[in-house]
Amino acid sequence: MTLDALFLFANASVMPAWLLLAVAPRWEWTHRIVHSLLYPAVLGTLYSVYAATSFLGSAAPEGGSFGSLGGVVELFSVPRLAFIGWVHYLVFDLFVGAWEARDAQRREIPHLLLLPCLFFTLMLGPLGLLLYLSIRYALRREVGLDERPAALR
User: Fold this and answer.
1) pTM of the model
2) What percent of the chain has pLDDT over 70?
């Protein structure tokens, strides 16, 4: 499978999960699919295989590193490494979006208020999380990320 085909697969694979979070957040199958290990396992495996084979195969360009912005730009100039970075975003943004949905349900935050947060988490990751945390604070005056019941805090 080509890198372009894998890119399309990775992009397309997360869209059903985002759709389920948006339109059927309390459905049993949403819980079974989105809140399971399915996505982290499948995309995490894809990420791991490509990361291991890319760095072991010396795919990193000269000057590429995580130590400077220029070094990161140089790394992402290599399609294989840009793909790895993109899969990284897909996995973590979906993880955050799924957490937002579960947290909103626990805290009884109206789903309509969650929808823009999910959209921005999908498109702009940290902005969506910040929006969700702002709405949660405005409605519940909660700032922490502690998920334990209030009696255990």
Assistant:
1) 0.89
2) 94
